[in-house]
Design brief:
By secondary structure, the protein is of the alpha+beta class. It has eight helices and 13 strands. The chain has helices at about 10-25, 50-65, 80-90, 125-140, 155-160, 235-250, 260-280, 285-290; strands spanning about 1-5, 25-30, 40-45, 70, 95-105, 145-155, 170-180, 185-190, 195-205, 210, 215-220, 225-230, 285. The termini are far apart. The relative contact order is 0.20.
Length: about 290
Amino acid sequence: MVRIGVIGCSEIGRAHAGAVAACGAAELVVAVDAFEAGKHVLLEKPPARNVAELREIADAAMEADRTLMIAYQRRHDPVHRKAGEMIRDGALGKLYYGRVRWFTWHHYPLRQEHCWRWSTRGGAMASLGSHLLDLQLWLMDYPRWEQVTAWAHRDIAAKMVDVGDDAGDDLMVALIRLENGVAIQAEASRRIHGPIGSSCELYGDEASYIETGRIVRRVSRDEKTEQPVGDGAPGKSRQTRAQMECFIEAIRGNAEPDMGIDQALAMQSLLDAIYGSAETGETVSRRDQV
Protein backbone atom coordinates (compact mmCIF):
# COMPACT_ATOMS: atom_id res chain seq x y z
CA MET A 1 0.00 0.00 0.00
CA VAL A 2 1.40 3.41 -1.06
CA ARG A 3 0.70 6.21 1.45
CA ILE A 4 0.12 9.68 -0.09
CA GLY A 5 -0.03 13.17 1.41
CA VAL A 6 -1.75 16.09 -0.32
CA ILE A 7 -0.27 19.55 0.33
CA GLY A 8 -2.91 22.20 -0.31
CA CYS A 9 -6.50 20.93 -0.18
CA SER A 10 -8.38 23.45 -2.34
CA GLU A 11 -10.43 22.28 -5.34
CA ILE A 12 -7.47 20.61 -7.06
CA GLY A 13 -6.19 19.09 -3.81
CA ARG A 14 -9.60 17.59 -3.15
CA ALA A 15 -9.63 16.14 -6.68
CA HIS A 16 -6.30 14.43 -6.05
CA ALA A 17 -7.50 13.14 -2.68
CA GLY A 18 -10.57 11.69 -4.38
CA ALA A 19 -8.38 10.04 -7.01
CA VAL A 20 -6.27 8.42 -4.29
CA ALA A 21 -9.39 7.05 -2.62
CA ALA A 22 -10.68 5.70 -5.95
CA CYS A 23 -7.42 3.91 -6.78
CA GLY A 24 -7.61 1.47 -3.88
CA ALA A 25 -3.83 0.97 -4.05
CA ALA A 26 -2.99 3.95 -1.88
CA GLU A 27 -4.09 5.85 1.22
CA LEU A 28 -3.78 9.48 2.29
CA VAL A 29 -1.35 10.35 5.19
CA VAL A 30 -0.19 13.54 6.90
CA ALA A 31 1.58 15.86 4.47
CA VAL A 32 5.31 16.54 4.91
CA ASP A 33 8.05 18.55 3.25
CA ALA A 34 8.35 15.94 0.58
CA PHE A 35 11.80 15.83 -0.93
CA GLU A 36 13.57 16.91 2.26
CA ALA A 37 11.87 13.99 3.94
CA GLY A 38 12.81 11.66 1.07
CA LYS A 39 9.30 11.43 -0.39
CA HIS A 40 8.12 11.10 -3.98
CA VAL A 41 6.34 14.14 -5.47
CA LEU A 42 3.43 14.67 -7.87
CA LEU A 43 3.76 18.40 -8.54
CA GLU A 44 0.80 20.46 -9.77
CA LYS A 45 1.23 22.73 -12.76
CA PRO A 46 2.71 25.11 -13.50
CA PRO A 47 5.57 23.44 -11.61
CA ALA A 48 7.69 26.59 -11.22
CA ARG A 49 7.96 30.27 -12.12
CA ASN A 50 10.78 29.66 -14.58
CA VAL A 51 13.19 27.05 -15.91
CA ALA A 52 15.84 27.87 -13.30
CA GLU A 53 13.44 27.11 -10.43
CA LEU A 54 12.29 23.89 -12.09
CA ARG A 55 15.89 22.75 -12.46
CA GLU A 56 16.34 23.29 -8.71
CA ILE A 57 13.33 21.07 -8.05
CA ALA A 58 14.66 18.44 -10.46
CA ASP A 59 18.06 18.53 -8.75
CA ALA A 60 16.39 18.04 -5.37
CA ALA A 61 14.51 15.02 -6.72
CA MET A 62 17.72 13.57 -8.16
CA GLU A 63 19.65 14.15 -4.93
CA ALA A 64 16.92 12.45 -2.92
CA ASP A 65 16.63 9.68 -5.54
CA ARG A 66 12.86 10.14 -5.54
CA THR A 67 10.19 10.23 -8.27
CA LEU A 68 9.08 13.62 -9.61
CA MET A 69 6.00 13.75 -11.85
CA ILE A 70 4.20 16.87 -13.09
CA ALA A 71 0.38 16.93 -13.04
CA TYR A 72 -1.02 17.63 -16.49
CA GLN A 73 -3.95 15.26 -16.31
CA ARG A 74 -5.48 15.52 -19.80
CA ARG A 75 -2.73 13.38 -21.32
CA HIS A 76 -3.83 10.51 -19.06
CA ASP A 77 -7.34 10.21 -20.51
CA PRO A 78 -7.68 6.87 -22.39
CA VAL A 79 -9.39 8.68 -25.27
CA HIS A 80 -6.52 11.13 -25.72
CA ARG A 81 -3.96 8.35 -25.30
CA LYS A 82 -5.57 6.39 -28.11
CA ALA A 83 -5.82 9.54 -30.22
CA GLY A 84 -2.12 10.23 -29.64
CA GLU A 85 -1.22 6.79 -30.99
CA MET A 86 -3.41 7.35 -34.05
CA ILE A 87 -2.04 10.85 -34.71
CA ARG A 88 1.57 9.71 -34.42
CA ASP A 89 0.71 6.90 -36.88
CA GLY A 90 -0.53 9.48 -39.39
CA ALA A 91 -4.32 9.50 -38.84
CA LEU A 92 -4.52 13.25 -39.52
CA GLY A 93 -1.99 13.32 -42.35
CA LYS A 94 0.67 16.02 -42.24
CA LEU A 95 0.10 18.26 -39.23
CA TYR A 96 0.23 22.01 -39.78
CA TYR A 97 -1.96 23.92 -37.27
CA GLY A 98 -3.18 23.74 -33.69
CA ARG A 99 -5.54 25.90 -31.69
CA VAL A 100 -6.13 25.90 -27.93
CA ARG A 101 -8.51 28.10 -25.99
CA TRP A 102 -9.69 28.27 -22.37
CA PHE A 103 -11.99 31.13 -21.41
CA THR A 104 -13.64 31.35 -18.00
CA TRP A 105 -15.00 33.89 -15.50
CA HIS A 106 -13.49 34.48 -12.09
CA HIS A 107 -14.10 37.16 -9.50
CA TYR A 108 -11.02 39.00 -8.26
CA PRO A 109 -9.32 38.63 -5.92
CA LEU A 110 -9.06 34.87 -6.31
CA ARG A 111 -8.32 32.86 -3.19
CA GLN A 112 -5.10 31.61 -4.79
CA GLU A 113 -2.83 34.66 -4.82
CA HIS A 114 -0.45 33.14 -7.37
CA CYS A 115 -3.27 33.20 -9.93
CA TRP A 116 -3.32 36.98 -10.18
CA ARG A 117 0.32 38.01 -9.70
CA TRP A 118 2.53 38.43 -12.75
CA SER A 119 5.69 37.50 -10.82
CA THR A 120 4.34 34.06 -9.88
CA ARG A 121 3.49 33.15 -13.48
CA GLY A 122 0.23 31.66 -12.27
CA GLY A 123 -2.08 33.70 -14.49
CA ALA A 124 -4.42 32.67 -17.27
CA MET A 125 -1.92 31.15 -19.67
CA ALA A 126 0.21 29.31 -17.10
CA SER A 127 -2.62 27.87 -15.02
CA LEU A 128 -5.27 27.34 -17.72
CA GLY A 129 -3.70 27.47 -21.16
CA SER A 130 -0.75 25.27 -20.25
CA HIS A 131 -3.12 22.30 -19.70
CA LEU A 132 -4.19 22.49 -23.33
CA LEU A 133 -0.73 23.29 -24.65
CA ASP A 134 0.59 20.18 -22.91
CA LEU A 135 -2.12 18.03 -24.48
CA GLN A 136 -1.46 19.46 -27.93
CA LEU A 137 2.32 19.01 -27.71
CA TRP A 138 1.95 15.53 -26.20
CA LEU A 139 -0.31 14.43 -29.09
CA MET A 140 2.58 15.37 -31.42
CA ASP A 141 5.27 13.65 -29.30
CA TYR A 142 6.42 16.97 -27.81
CA PRO A 143 8.21 18.86 -30.62
CA ARG A 144 10.31 21.80 -29.46
CA TRP A 145 9.09 25.35 -29.88
CA GLU A 146 11.07 27.61 -32.20
CA GLN A 147 9.46 31.05 -31.94
CA VAL A 148 6.83 32.76 -29.78
CA THR A 149 4.94 36.04 -30.06
CA ALA A 150 2.54 36.84 -27.20
CA TRP A 151 0.36 39.64 -25.84
CA ALA A 152 -1.26 40.00 -22.42
CA HIS A 153 -4.18 42.02 -21.03
CA ARG A 154 -3.65 42.78 -17.33
CA ASP A 155 -5.94 45.73 -16.61
CA ILE A 156 -8.83 43.85 -14.95
CA ALA A 157 -6.65 42.25 -12.28
CA ALA A 158 -4.78 45.55 -11.82
CA LYS A 159 -8.03 47.45 -11.14
CA MET A 160 -9.52 44.87 -8.78
CA VAL A 161 -6.48 43.71 -6.81
CA ASP A 162 -4.04 46.05 -5.09
CA VAL A 163 -0.82 44.58 -6.49
CA GLY A 164 0.45 47.51 -8.52
CA ASP A 165 2.62 46.49 -11.46
CA ASP A 166 2.48 42.85 -10.38
CA ALA A 167 -1.03 42.25 -11.76
CA GLY A 168 -1.23 38.95 -13.62
CA ASP A 169 -2.62 38.19 -17.06
CA ASP A 170 -6.42 38.09 -17.17
CA LEU A 171 -6.04 37.35 -20.90
CA MET A 172 -3.08 35.99 -22.83
CA VAL A 173 -2.81 35.31 -26.56
CA ALA A 174 0.22 33.58 -28.10
CA LEU A 175 1.32 32.43 -31.55
CA ILE A 176 3.80 29.57 -31.31
CA ARG A 177 5.87 28.06 -34.12
CA LEU A 178 7.20 24.52 -33.57
CA GLU A 179 10.21 22.75 -35.04
CA ASN A 180 7.91 20.32 -36.90
CA GLY A 181 6.39 23.21 -38.87
CA VAL A 182 3.13 23.37 -36.89
CA ALA A 183 1.83 26.76 -35.74
CA ILE A 184 -0.28 26.95 -32.56
CA GLN A 185 -2.63 29.76 -31.60
CA ALA A 186 -3.17 29.77 -27.83
CA GLU A 187 -5.71 31.86 -25.90
CA ALA A 188 -6.47 31.84 -22.18
CA SER A 189 -8.57 34.14 -20.03
CA ARG A 190 -9.66 34.14 -16.40
CA ARG A 191 -12.35 36.77 -16.86
CA ILE A 192 -14.03 37.54 -20.19
CA HIS A 193 -17.46 38.70 -21.35
CA GLY A 194 -18.26 35.86 -23.72
CA PRO A 195 -18.69 32.09 -24.05
CA ILE A 196 -16.67 30.14 -21.50
CA GLY A 197 -15.12 26.72 -21.87
CA SER A 198 -12.04 24.99 -23.26
CA SER A 199 -11.09 23.52 -26.61
CA CYS A 200 -8.06 21.85 -28.15
CA GLU A 201 -7.93 21.30 -31.91
CA LEU A 202 -5.11 19.81 -33.99
CA TYR A 203 -5.29 20.01 -37.79
CA GLY A 204 -3.66 17.87 -40.46
CA ASP A 205 -4.12 17.91 -44.22
CA GLU A 206 -6.36 14.81 -44.04
CA ALA A 207 -8.32 15.26 -40.78
CA SER A 208 -8.41 17.06 -37.41
CA TYR A 209 -8.65 15.95 -33.79
CA ILE A 210 -10.77 17.84 -31.26
CA GLU A 211 -10.63 17.57 -27.48
CA THR A 212 -14.11 16.04 -27.24
CA GLY A 213 -12.56 12.82 -28.56
CA ARG A 214 -13.33 12.91 -32.27
CA ILE A 215 -11.41 12.77 -35.52
CA VAL A 216 -13.14 15.04 -38.04
CA ARG A 217 -12.92 14.75 -41.83
CA ARG A 218 -14.66 17.12 -44.21
CA VAL A 219 -15.39 15.68 -47.64
CA SER A 220 -17.09 18.79 -49.00
CA ARG A 221 -18.24 22.24 -47.88
CA ASP A 222 -21.47 20.80 -46.49
CA GLU A 223 -20.46 17.29 -45.52
CA LYS A 224 -18.17 15.99 -42.80
CA THR A 225 -17.67 12.83 -40.78
CA GLU A 226 -16.83 12.54 -37.07
CA GLN A 227 -15.11 9.38 -35.86
CA PRO A 228 -15.20 8.87 -32.08
CA VAL A 229 -11.91 7.75 -30.56
CA GLY A 230 -12.50 5.06 -27.94
CA ASP A 231 -15.76 5.93 -26.23
CA GLY A 232 -15.34 9.56 -27.34
CA ALA A 233 -15.97 10.86 -23.82
CA PRO A 234 -12.89 12.39 -22.17
CA GLY A 235 -13.53 13.33 -18.53
CA LYS A 236 -11.65 15.06 -15.72
CA SER A 237 -12.39 12.50 -13.01
CA ARG A 238 -10.98 9.55 -14.92
CA GLN A 239 -8.03 11.66 -16.11
CA THR A 240 -7.17 12.50 -12.51
CA ARG A 241 -7.57 8.88 -11.40
CA ALA A 242 -5.43 7.56 -14.28
CA GLN A 243 -2.79 10.16 -13.45
CA MET A 244 -2.70 9.03 -9.83
CA GLU A 245 -2.45 5.38 -10.90
CA CYS A 246 0.49 6.28 -13.14
CA PHE A 247 2.20 8.10 -10.27
CA ILE A 248 1.72 5.14 -7.94
CA GLU A 249 3.17 2.74 -10.52
CA ALA A 250 6.15 5.10 -11.01
CA ILE A 251 6.75 5.09 -7.25
CA ARG A 252 6.70 1.30 -7.29
CA GLY A 253 9.23 1.25 -10.12
CA ASN A 254 6.81 -0.33 -12.60
CA ALA A 255 6.57 2.69 -14.95
CA GLU A 256 8.26 5.94 -15.87
CA PRO A 257 6.66 9.14 -14.54
CA ASP A 258 4.47 10.85 -17.12
CA MET A 259 5.21 13.76 -17.38
CA GLY A 260 8.86 13.55 -16.37
CA ILE A 261 11.43 16.30 -16.06
CA ASP A 262 12.40 16.54 -19.76
CA GLN A 263 8.90 17.40 -20.95
CA ALA A 264 8.33 19.54 -17.86
CA LEU A 265 11.39 21.61 -18.74
CA ALA A 266 10.20 21.87 -22.35
CA MET A 267 6.81 23.19 -21.20
CA GLN A 268 8.37 25.57 -18.67
CA SER A 269 10.71 26.90 -21.36
CA LEU A 270 7.69 27.58 -23.60
CA LEU A 271 5.84 29.36 -20.79
CA ASP A 272 8.95 31.43 -20.06
CA ALA A 273 9.04 32.45 -23.73
CA ILE A 274 5.32 33.32 -23.80
CA TYR A 275 5.50 35.48 -20.69
CA GLY A 276 8.77 37.01 -21.83
CA SER A 277 7.30 38.00 -25.18
CA ALA A 278 4.17 39.44 -23.56
CA GLU A 279 6.28 41.45 -21.12
CA THR A 280 8.67 42.93 -23.70
CA GLY A 281 6.44 43.07 -26.77
CA GLU A 282 9.15 41.24 -28.72
CA THR A 283 9.15 37.87 -30.48
CA VAL A 284 11.21 35.29 -28.59
CA SER A 285 13.26 32.66 -30.43
CA ARG A 286 14.43 29.45 -28.79
CA ARG A 287 17.98 29.97 -30.04
CA ASP A 288 18.06 33.17 -27.97
CA GLN A 289 17.38 31.17 -24.79
CA VAL A 290 20.05 28.52 -25.31
